[in-house]
Amino acid sequence: MRYSLRSIDDEDLDWLYELNKKSFREIVIRQFGTWDEAFQRQSFYANRDSAVSGRIVVNAETRIGVVLLQPKDAYDWESGSSDNLPRS
Fold first, then answer.
1. Helix axes 13-32, 37-46, angle to 10 degrees
2. Which pLDDT score, from 0 to 100, does residue 39 have?
3. Buried b / exposed e across 29-43, counting CB within 10 Å, b at 16+?
4. Closest listed residue to residue 16, CA positions, set 60, 81, 77
5. d(Cα 20, Cα 13) in Å, to the nearest integer?
6. CA geometry: angle at 42 spanning 33 and 65, to 5°?
7. 23, 67, 76, 81 — which has fewest CB within 10 A?
8. pLDDT one-digit tens code per residue, 4-57
9. The pTM is what?
């Protein structure tokens, strides 16, 4: 398998939301008892921070995950998030 990284485009946002939902829905329900779709969607789009640098993980032209990095200081970065599609 050959993997590559590419920049996140505006066209990826809906896909990223669905990936976020697949990654965190069960955890949110376990912690808070419910998944409020309207709240989660609004929060996801409102919190897209331009300071976060991300890359879409691609395999054979198919998006399979994302890696997000946040600047820590002038020279360091820290991982903000890493999500992958579950295997079918």
1. 130
2. 95
3. eeeeeeeeeeebeee
4. 81
5. 10
6. 85
7. 76
8. 999 888 889 899 899 889 889 999 999 999 999 999 999 888 877 655 678 898
9. 0.74
Task: Specify the length of the chain in residues.
Answer: 88
The Cα–Cα gap between 70 and 42 comes to 21
Distance from C-alpha of 80 to C-alpha of 22, rounded to nearest angstrom:
17
- Report which secondary-structure segment, H or E, holds 53: strand 53-59
Distance CA 10, CA 16 (A): 10
Residue in the block written with tokens 């998944």: 35
Helices (H), 5-87: 13-32, 37-46
Block residue for tokens 């809906």 = 14
